Amino acid sequence: MENFFSIDDVTDLQELLQKALKVKADPLANSKLGKHRTLGLIFYNSSLRTRISSQKAAYNLGMDVITLNIGSDGWALESKDGVVMDQGTAEHIKDAAAVISEYVDVIGIRCFAGLKDREEDYLEGVLQNFIKHATVPIINLESSTLHPLQSLADLVTIETNKNKPKPKVVLTWAPHPRSLPQAVANSFVEWMKEADVELVITHPKGYDLSSKFSNGVTVEYDQNKAFEGADFIYAKNWSSYTSYGEILSKDTAWCVDESKMQLTNNAKFMHCLPVRRNVIVTDGVIDSENSLVIEQAGNRVVSIQTVLQEFLSK
Amino acid sequence: MENFFSIDDVTDLQELLQKALKVKADPLANSKLGKHRTLGLIFYNSSLRTRISSQKAAYNLGMDVITLNIGSDGWALESKDGVVMDQGTAEHIKDAAAVISEYVDVIGIRCFAGLKDREEDYLEGVLQNFIKHATVPIINLESSTLHPLQSLADLVTIETNKNKPKPKVVLTWAPHPRSLPQAVANSFVEWMKEADVELVITHPKGYDLSSKFSNGVTVEYDQNKAFEGADFIYAKNWSSYTSYGEILSKDTAWCVDESKMQLTNNAKFMHCLPVRRNVIVTDGVIDSENSLVIEQAGNRVVSIQTVLQEFLSK
Amino acid sequence: MENFFSIDDVTDLQELLQKALKVKADPLANSKLGKHRTLGLIFYNSSLRTRISSQKAAYNLGMDVITLNIGSDGWALESKDGVVMDQGTAEHIKDAAAVISEYVDVIGIRCFAGLKDREEDYLEGVLQNFIKHATVPIINLESSTLHPLQSLADLVTIETNKNKPKPKVVLTWAPHPRSLPQAVANSFVEWMKEADVELVITHPKGYDLSSKFSNGVTVEYDQNKAFEGADFIYAKNWSSYTSYGEILSKDTAWCVDESKMQLTNNAKFMHCLPVRRNVIVTDGVIDSENSLVIEQAGNRVVSIQTVLQEFLSK
Question: Would an 8 Å CB–CB cutoff place B32 in contact with chain A?
Fold first, then answer.
């Protein structure tokens, strides 16, 4: 594994999952592996779970950590090649990536979608430029279109909570007052397709994910029907991919509530957090015994620690 | 001690003070106690002393530290229960508290008073919600109404500088251009009432603290009279509690100057800092040999390190 | 060395350079020297290289690090003496400096020029106040008029890349859309004058540096002529010193391009970064084999680590 940008960087998912389960069982087993090695964390956007869990994972491995908020701590970065930089950006990503590589051993980057220009977002300019110009491994801390550390944490959560070999996992769209990226949904689908689960996606019409991700997956526009027999309900809002970045529905009927959970096979409830309570999901569901959201968030330490170990062990 | 929110969390003040004096005498005596343990520091508001002294104390104990600025690094948090979260807040405190508890071993939180709604401020929603929903100890880094780490540092400062068993300690209001919380004053009174001192509060009319704190304490509206025979002068501004958050006086006559210090028993001068020079206190007084403000600030490492040790030793 | 503010703090430049080369050769040779010692980093302004390289250097020495962004994390600081502080500043530098000295063992400070008032900028109020009132060593992380850590890194870069005992080093002004400080240029000149090089400065008329720095140095207003036979081209923009802070020229003819580099003795290209590509220098030059900019940035770890070692060894 040279970088951790998407599932394409994972050569053997089952092997990675087994390593993650070992990390979960004994987080301090490799507490000297990262001695005198530094993790650099670069944030274009806000973060709570990612920021804290990444640092915790690094500390578990004995690494040092340096965080940088681009645009407040640091400079605005240019990502287009060949530009005459006489406008707002003070430094080119290619220089920043090469320079930061001089100082740290692994770089994690968060950079959300702009949700204005689909083509630009799906080209993943920032992450791809860092991958191209950095000389150390790059970890995706949520990019325009993907959030693979979340997906690996989700996989660990499902693996350690499933009651049958091949559980039914339903990814359900839910309403949200703001326009959100497709990254968590795209990534979850990409990972679940490779995992030992029966995956169903449910959302209102107009919310189809890019076919690159949804190809080969059952899409069911009737949420109630989708929930039938489900072992895991994974709720998440995303804005439209086809009418890019738009909010086509705020239909509160899509909120995951107790009556809908009754349709399932006593399903566990999952969400990546932060979650809008009583918009995405009712208090009753998220505070129930079947809710895995806190354990799922806890597994964010497991997922990045597993990835860091891969890079440190090379 | 399960949390450190107020003096009510302290079962034996004398014992805690003795432990603090040991920390002051030998800060590195327990430098491995916090190995592989992490302190999370959450700031809703600016901080200099608290931010730096908390990290230093954690390092003295061998802990790792993660800091988070809510609202810039992270998300705006909802603190009301049962709310339909379709407005400005992205995450509920109950989820944030539970999640952060997955990552760190002790959480420190700073959240100042809004000074708009007295009842809301004195309910201490943010801190109390963290205490309720976190699964690790919570340390108050200054809340709406209390600043107990400052008070413990103040107690250590008085203990190590007093010339008699029961010194006279005067808390004096002083003017300030902005509306400030009552937290430092409330907390100082709460702690001094339990300590071996003779406490007098002096302030202009209209600046009485909540009776919850001032009950049983001598209040003297004549500042000169209050200063007579004082061994310690503790200056601090606060806005009105009765006319909540209002500035009722900017009377420069309340500034602590050399002539007023002449009325005392060669008193030591204290202030929690940051201080408005020549508004709260003259350069002459704060720069005099009797000024303890820098040592007092230094004791902020001692106070939080003492509290951290309590939690780590359990 | 009591502080590291300017080259005047260096008693023996050759000795310091030799120490720096040892740090470069073996960065972890003193990995326990800084145990239980803390570096405090205070930023009035944005930083990428300085922020990250300073932390990395501290970690290489086993130090802990605490960073503080003045004005966002902390408070606005007053730097004038005797002021009645009833306006915007919440704390005086003299108190902040003394307090921070209670918590950390070395303080690094970045505070750029305001570029409004030349006299004020060149008095270096912030740094000088910290030096006056702190009780621990102060490191200049780029002040109004100087950037000595950059200059030491530049010296190391030249020393390890020169092909002759006394190379010709040309500092060339280059255009920039915004008004920039003279700090990097001033400092570079100050250090090169003490080093074993032949120094030439070239810039359009009106861009002469303060005579304090340029005295005794060849200034050549014809850039092409200056480049002839150069072994190192160091590009940097600065605003006018005489018409203080003004942009007198945006002449794109001063951009360092391939044709100008042809005039040199196969010169290496240097710039402190961040750099405006195709404004200061063309992609062709900065991406060429002769470009040292990334190695030069990497040497920022070397320069601050060398300085930290000096303070820790005392």
Answer: no
